[in-house]
Amino acid sequence: MPIIQSVDRALRILDLFDEYESELKITDISSRMNLHKSTVHSLLKTLQHYNYIEQNLENGKYKLGMKLFERGNFVIHNLDIRSVAKKHLMELSMKTGNTIHLVILDGKEGVYIDKVEGSAATILYSRIGRRIPVHCSAVGKALVAFKSQEELAAILKDYEYISQTPKTITNEKDFLIELDNVRKEGFAMDNQENEAGVSCISVPIRDHSEHVIAAISMSQPVHRINKKAIKEIAEMLKETAENISRELGFGVKASSI
Amino acid sequence: MPIIQSVDRALRILDLFDEYESELKITDISSRMNLHKSTVHSLLKTLQHYNYIEQNLENGKYKLGMKLFERGNFVIHNLDIRSVAKKHLMELSMKTGNTIHLVILDGKEGVYIDKVEGSAATILYSRIGRRIPVHCSAVGKALVAFKSQEELAAILKDYEYISQTPKTITNEKDFLIELDNVRKEGFAMDNQENEAGVSCISVPIRDHSEHVIAAISMSQPVHRINKKAIKEIAEMLKETAENISRELGFGVKASSI
DNA sequence: TTAATTGGTTTTATATTATAAAACTGCGTT
DNA sequence: AACGCAGTTTTATAATATAAAACCAATTAA
């Protein structure tokens, strides 16, 4: 049996704190743990030494410390999207036969960080690491549409609306209207704005902080696109994105007032 | 010396994981801690038992576990603004002699959740629990100016711009322009828009998630207000707000890609 | 004012248990 | 097939975690 008793006890103490009792007295802990109060005292002082526990000097009570937040944040930081998303993207690709892309925002551009090839003919040139402008791509729109006004303003400052096809949006006013629409619909699409003959649909992925941190997309030759197809694809993408988001901590106990 | 060695070692192991090495082998840990690998093994298994550590089954390496995130979130959740803000508000009130208010957003209105009376004559009727519209108050503007477009839209949907004084802003267009200005300046003010003869200056408080969760404000009789005074007050409020925000976890290692 | 209660801290002896050595398993490489 | 490497299990013993008792400080009761 490799369980170390004192460590085990220290960790169980951390678990005692809950919604209803965020501060505990030594004697409370000692009676609940069936340990002598001097033993609990030593355990607490050790935990306190590394800030896993803090003491309220006003009343002597103990509570969980900031170190837990710091380390906890680190865990989430290191849950990388790519590995979490992989199996979901494969599933969706399998189901539809299409190629699925995973894209993040870097500065003012999207960057493809993963793709899963489908059985259907490849219609869009892509490569992991490739960059794509936000103003003319479904993924770009999905990535920026949910940013705060400040962040969006920073991205659009001195933005160059380079024209890729005759359909490309080339001014801020139209682009903002387009983003409004993305927010309303919950998905983004480009209508041959990036490559003639190709249309792309994309939805955002959020993490524990509720911020959009990535987008997934599916591309279609334009002749296969119609109202019904768009709706179907958007629904499937949304479902997949929701599953990924959840696995990244989205909806895990929002912390607000 | 009340430090318990095995607990101390377990906690130090948790601290070994960092940005560059989020997964570690037992032998790595053992050499860095100057402990025998079987000792480290026991410690890890104990930590793993409560999910403070997880093992990557593909390569046998260990990494921080989800429990840390769970407990960390709990710490933040239980840090309540009021108690954290109190001493900062008292300090500012003492320094300036003015009454300081602490306000949060509830639905489409601000709610006063705390106030610290200054020595100067009271000029604004206020009471903890009192509600105040967002469109005609400095605190209201500070609370909503940094919301996402979606949240702001939800607040302003069917919003009634009730006129409180001849100076009250009574339409969305002007209000949005005003909010733009708040974002640009970093502080909000009302210019007798809520009560004739009184002007108020307010700045937002953010928490670990970087969202605005409250605002603090200082009120002045209008005859004491001028460019220089506004600037001075705004600076003091900003400094206080920054201190509170920091204590609430703002800037403690943002987690994004 | 003093006694009693409650809760946290410190000290200490001893019985428990954390530790490291050594042996074992399983995997990949040569 | 043999070697090296990493994780795991077992075991004896030396180290230390534990609880008892005493102490301190603050609050409440008499």
TrEMBL record, chains A, B:
Domain of life: Bacteria
Pfam families associated with the record: HTH_IclR (PF09339), IclR_C (PF01614)
IclR-ED domain span: 67-250
Keyword Ribosomal protein: no
Gene Ontology molecular functions: DNA binding; DNA-binding transcription factor activity
Keywords: DNA-binding, Transcription, Transcription regulation
Gene Ontology process terms (BP): negative regulation of DNA-templated transcription
Limits of the HTH iclR-type domain: 4-66
Coiled coil (residue ranges): none
Role: May be an activator protein for the gylABX operon.
Designated name of the protein: Glycerol operon regulatory protein
Source organism: Fictibacillus solisalsi
